[in-house]
Hints:
With about 290 residues, this protein is of the alpha+beta class. The chain has six helices and twelve strands.
Amino acid sequence: MRRYAVTTAVLVLGVMLAVQPGPRAIAAADEPSLLQIDNDFVQAAAKHDKATVGRLLDTDFTWTEADGKTQARIDVLKSLPTPALGNETGAQLKPRTYGQVGAVMSGRDKVHVLRIWVKRPAGWRLIVYHEVALGQQAATAPGFGVNDCQNPCKTVPFKPKTEAEQAIIASWQALETGVTNHDASAWSPHIAEEFVMLGSSNDHPLSKADRIAILNLQKQTGHGSAPAPLVSAQMFDFGDAVVMTCLHQPYSGKPVHVSRLWIKRNGHWVMSISYQTTIQAAPAKAS
């Protein structure tokens, strides 16, 4: 796996900002350079300006469309996809910064976009562009009747190469074990307070409190909740922030492409953001 180290040890939680009506948001005081370059990308992508877009993409960049199609940088620049939100007029913008990693979440109605930026010597570069259309995919039982979660709770088809990656896998397995057991108290320590999850099968973004409420309800009803097994993963290390991109195959239904952002807070790795898009063109697995 490719990974990059940075020299910062400072963790900065960015201000979340709601957009006023207009083509783009007003930049938060501590994030002007990130939001300016994010705006440059959005406008260039809306105009299909390949030259400008190309200068802003990281070498490890991937673009995930609302239908789950994911392309690498080289393929994106051959035929630039049409952004689901266009130039994002009237969209709501929520930026966060974590040291050398910045996340910009933009949404309008049921369409949402996550852009993860990383700070390189030459400036901010975009490593993840991920679209989610809420409610596009009917929800399927994650693992009804499965009481022993093997993958990802006990084993994963991914070999950590660094201490950070090992710690993240351990944290992830602990929280997914909590999900399987409907144990919110076991899940919660591995999740950032500002956590947000968006998925094709959800009709609205889910906060940490929302997920806790769901786990508690599942505990009362006995509804199965074993997480979708991991098929493959990549991690990109940036000091106290790690970008994780994954492919999951649920017990039934179509595979899902997931982008996650992990941060190290008080010595522990916690998940801050999770965007999950069902791959519509893939065959569905029978239950």
